[in-house]
Amino acid sequence: LVRKPAFLAALAVVLVSPFVVTAVFLHQGTLSMLHGWTAAQIAWGFLAFAMTQAASTWLVGHWIDRHGVRPVFRVYLLPVAIAALALGFGPSHLALWILFIGLGATAGGNSVVSGALWAEVFGVDSLGMVRGVYTGFMVIATAVSPLMFGLSLEADTSVAYLAAGVA
């Protein structure tokens, strides 16, 4: 499976959301210090994330049922790109909301896209194996992302530079 270009190409896309969300969540303290966000604002951000993720899951599921996974796959990472750009370049008071809403929209979409994509591209006969391999890579990505972001922040990499890289 890991020798198939289609799997590796799709994997590079569907791992973006868990990678970025985990890094942001685990470095929320540093981000809040850099942007002047309060603990209450972060808590409201998590609520916005959860509500957006739920709505996005339902909406993206509907779109996939109507149009197939491929057209949705091409655009579902746009909210996380906008979120990253807002974090790096937007005004702090708006960046928090755009960040959490963008992350929620992409995370919700990712949960539906990744499931539908594997079934559509590889069929359902080997769906268990495909999802298992994907999940293993997702666990690795979510373990690596906080380390990478942490080392970057400790090296005084600007949030704007990190945000541009994510976008």
Key terms for this structure?
167 residues; mainly alpha
Number of helices: 9
Main β-sheet description = none
Radius of gyration based on Cα positions: 16 Å
State which percent range the strand residues make up.
Answer: under 5%
Mean pLDDT: 94
- The ordered H/E elements are HHHHHHHHH
Q: Helices and strands: which structural class?
A: mainly alpha
Describe this structure in words.
By secondary structure, the protein is mostly helical. The protein is 85% helix and 0% strand. Helix 2 runs antiparallel to helix 7 and helix 2 crosses helix 8. It is globular and about 50 Å long.
In short:
With 167 residues, the chain is an all-alpha fold. Helices cover 85% and strands 0% of the residues.
Topology:
Elements: H1 5-14, H2 16-26, H3 28-35, H4 39-67, H5 69-73, H6 78-89, H7 92-122, H8 127-154, H9 159-166
Helix pairs in contact: 2-7, 2-8, 4-7, 6-7, 6-9
